[in-house]
Design a protein that fits this description.
There is one protein chain. The protein is an alpha+beta fold and 80 residues long. It has a domain at 21-73: SH3 type barrels, CATH 2.30.30. Helices cover 20% and strands 34% of the residues. Strands 2-1-6 form a 3-stranded antiparallel β-sheet, with no helix packed on it. It starts with a helix and ends in an 11-residue tail after the last strand.
Amino acid sequence: MNKTLRVALTGLLFASASGCTTYYRVEDPAGSKTYYTDHISEEDSGAIKFKDLQTGERVTLQSSAVKEVHKSDLPAGTAN
């Protein structure tokens, strides 16, 4: 494969990967609160950590229900 084609394919791959953000709705069954985020990390204990897109608050939950949602499902005013 020649260098020009390699550079073009690499650029295309990078551009397509950078435009795909996954969003999640996270529900806290204990507190009946719903959060929205674009990144979740799981701790060894099973808890999850994330940044709430509505408030900017960092949240840790021991128990949660997580569902992938589309960007259009985010509440109005949700920052990203």
